[in-house]
Design brief:
Helix content: 25-40%
Strand content: 25-35%
Mean pLDDT: 92
Distance between the termini: 59 Å
Strand order of the largest sheet: 7-6-5-8-4-1-2-3-9
Bound molecules: flavin-adenine dinucleotide
Radius of gyration: 21 Å
Shape: elongated
Structural class: alpha/beta
Number of helices: 9
Length: 318
């Protein structure tokens, strides 16, 4: 019996170590083997990461193109893998794409799926799964009574914990069908990402409606540049047309985990915090001392950001 984390792509995504931490917890509690199925170029780096997180077996798929597979091929490949290996639980590091793949895989296999998962433990013949709901405001506990459950893991709510001792990772090459499946949807255009990804940034300066205007938002960009970081914003200002949605942080935007997150004129709604609460340090500037953001911030400044920001930019540039 195995607990499996499924990954794909050319690099190991942020959040993978957190997902492995949860997978290892379930595997240990059920006496199952911890397996990691990695499709694509990321497999090369997975051995070292897998060893640190106690992975027993790393499964890779021979042949080129696995990382370039579209969703239909991916679902078919993963369904084939589950058919061959009969795991107890299949976990995904939740992102916009994997969330859909997880649901489709569960549909294909006829098994339950839970999204936004941050904890799981065995219960009865199945497992008790805890997930966030309503944008993180609520925790829901599900009793999943099925031999196999698909779990889409919200990794911002998990602290990565390497195994106490590294494991010896057995590497297996698994022959899977599915890569040749014809895609029913074709991507005809996708956004050109010229700069680094917000998800990978170590320093993010984000602004919200408290900036007052699109013009004032330039201060956020200046502050980000002065700190050598990237800039983001809340959905409120995306909706108001100040910035485009590729910079939106939050539940329906980018899930980030920087070393430093500076939130300026942002109220701290749960849907925004879903995209930044995993930051190691959060600094908030807000004129309302009772703003929710101060519940999350490690350092807070109560004041008018339009007065404070120019001074901070000057200081950061000095
Ligand atoms: C299903 C769903 C999904 C959502 N997804 C997201 C998401 O992905 N990302 C996201 O951000 N939101 C998301 N939202 C919206 C979210 O609930 C909030 O409405 C949004 O985050 C608020 O943005 P804000 O903090 O910029 O604005 P506001 O809530 O208007 O807050 C502005 C803040 O600025 C402060 N302020 C005002 N003037 C100043 C000043 N001069 N100096 C300093 N501080 C000042 C105020 O005190 C206030 O706290 C979602 C909502 C739903 C329902």
């Amino acid at each position: 019996m195995a607990v499996v984390l499924c990954s794909w792509g050319d690099a190991i995504d942020g959040g993978t170590e957190e997902a492995l931490t949860l997978a290892r917890k379930l595997a240990a509690a059920t006496g199952a083997q911890l397996r990691w199925l990695v499709l694509g170029g990321a497999a090369a780096a997975a051995v070292e990461v897998g060893a640190r997180y106690g992975v027993d077996r790393l499964d890779t798929v021979p042949g080129a193109g696995a990382s370039a597979a579209g969703p239909d091929a991916l679902v078919a490949t993963l369904a084939d893998y589950c058919g061959q290996t009969a795991p107890r639980a299949v976990l995904f590091n939740q992102g916009a794409e994997s969330r859909v793949i997880a649901a489709r895989l569960a549909g294909r296999l006829g098994v339950p799926v839970v999204a936004n998962v941050f904890d799981v433990e065995p219960a009865g013949g199945g497992q008790q799964v805890t997930a966030t709901a309503f944008g993180g405001d609520t925790h829901a506990v599900y009793q999943v009574d099925a031999p196999l459950a698909v779990l889409s893991v919200s990794t911002t709510a998990i602290v990565a914990a390497p195994a106490t001792a590294p494991s010896t990772v057995a590497q297996h090459s698994v022959a899977l069908t599915g890569a040749a499946v014809a895609e029913r949807f074709a991507v005809t255009a996708s956004p050109q990402v010229a700069e680094a990804r917000l998800e990978d940034a170590q320093i993010i300066v984000s602004g919200g409606r408290g900036l007052g205007s699109k013009q004032n938002f330039e201060l956020v960009k200046d502050m980000a540049a002065a700190l050598g970081g990237m800039w983001g914003g809340s959905r409120a200002i995306v909706d108001d047309g100040w910035i485009d949605s590729s910079h939106q942080v939050g539940l329906t935007g980018k899930i980030t985990r920087p070393a430093l997150y500076v939130a300026i004129g942002i109220s701290g709604a749960s849907q925004h915090m879903a995209g930044c609460s995993a930051a190691k340090t959060i600094i908030a500037i807000n004129k309302d001392a009772d703003a929710s953001i101060f519940r999350y911030a490690h350092y807070g400044v109560v004041g008018d950001c339009l007065e404070i920001l120019p001074e901070l930019i000057k200081a950061a540039k000095a």
